[in-house]
Amino acid sequence: MFGLEKPAGQREPGRSGGLPKMASVGDFNVLSSSIPATKVELSVSCRNLLDRDTFSKSDPICVLYTQAIGNKEWREFGRTEVIDNTLNPDFVRKFIMDYFFEERENLRFDFYDVDSKSPNLSKHDFLGQMFCTLGEIVGSQGSRLEKSIVGIPGKKCGTVIVTAEELGCCRDSVLMQFCANKLDKKDFFGKSDPFLVFHRSNEDGSFTICHKTEVVKNTLNPVWQAFKISVRALCNGDYDRTIKVEVYDWDRDGSHDFIGEFTTSYRELSRGQSQFNVYEVINPKKKGKKKKYVNSGTVTLLSFLIETEVSFLDYIKGGTQINFTVAIDFTASNGNPSQPTSLHYMNPYQLNAYGMALRAVGEIIQDYDSDKMFPALGFGARLPPDGRVSHEFALNGNPQNPYCHGIDGVMEAYYRSLKSVQLYGPTNFAPVINHVARYAASVKDGSQYFVLLIVTDGVISDMAQTKESIVNASKLPMSIIIVGVGPAEFDAMEELDGDVVRISSRGRFAERDIVQFVPFRDYIDRSGNHVLSMARLAKDVLAEIPEQFLSYMRVRGIKPSPAPPPYTPPIHVLQTQI
Question: What is this protein's function (predicted)?
Fold first, then answer.
């Protein structure tokens, strides 16, 4: 049905946001096998919708569609409730979606004036639609996107306001400490060596291990160190779910002796240190055998402290801008651009590898940059008119203002440069890294973060200087993505990536890992589906950016700025909801 059958405020137990039980967006996304970075809740309001009813105002509903990456097919994700008789609805029912920074999630919001109880949308009047990406909503100021509704030629269809709110329950962590008293003695020559094992219960009644404490040697009255665990890991955000704690005596051979167990819940633990949080440790076997059995000791909660983890979205919502710069390898090893064998070949029918890499990464990052102006640089070419070699030239030919508008502007400047410069050499990365580092060094307050995309055929000439530049840049608010195109061996690039061995220069190690390298050839889709290739490439190169971003903010102790005050809709007549 349409969501017509019950008021939007009444939720079915166990359903999120009152939506019908529908697949989450991850279920039909070829790429979303990874754990969602976070969940966001989308709220939808409209202003000045078209009036399609003769004697009263429209009765609007909003239908959200998501787009599969491979075949571009739109699928219905969910519907809001219908609100009677209004052109300015604030829909109560929310859409809860998985959010991945590194994926482009295309969304379509369709609006209808509902004329009957039929769930078939063709039976209702179309009021228009709005297209955007999830990144566009999240990346807007205050994560609030306002856009015109389109789709009915010659008519003003009004505006839609979509607000994204990160769901908070999964972001808390708790810091807990336990001690025990008078545990059973299990060792022949000494006392026990106790440790605790925590399990969360699953929907089907089984248990999953979620934490082990350290072992405290030779005592029946241990005090364990405080430990931190996410609420999601401890109880999946369900405060009343059973948590089982087992107490063991550690043995060197791994055959640890079971002392006993007890159960609790997050809600009980959150009362903190009190008489409610002293637990009898029970060994069911002993209890069954011995009539006089009382317990195998007690475990006491000493402290319970909730910490809310700040997330990437908190900073974006607080106004942090992501500045995107591209640097393209114009060295002769790429081959003559007029030949089909060249990596820079301008094929009129499809993008070359450089173009694909630029578009794949740029189209996602541009959603987080409010002015959409990107510096685009080239290196390793001879420039007109005098043929001097440059390792950081503006693709648009204007060194004072190397900014291009949007990813389309970058592509245009790239193609124009190919026609005017002469591919030359050597392949030096350090100048473009230092170029971005100069800007990053001037804003270290967390208001801006810089991402440099270097697309190269990988034959690097200035390895020592590049390492030095990366080690220096690791202290700055910046990340470097390197996409290697062509058939070369990319051993040097793997070394710069620093995933296996942290990069160093003259005895100094990088403060944090800021480089992500991927070879483009790993993403060529054999079926020729370039859309899928580009989506996979973007997913892999961008997946590390939020964590690199957070590592900079954490090391510097920078907290997110408060988000702008939430949007308050203009007051209008209260609608009835059916």
Answer: Probable calcium-dependent phospholipid-binding protein that may play a role in calcium-mediated intracellular processes.
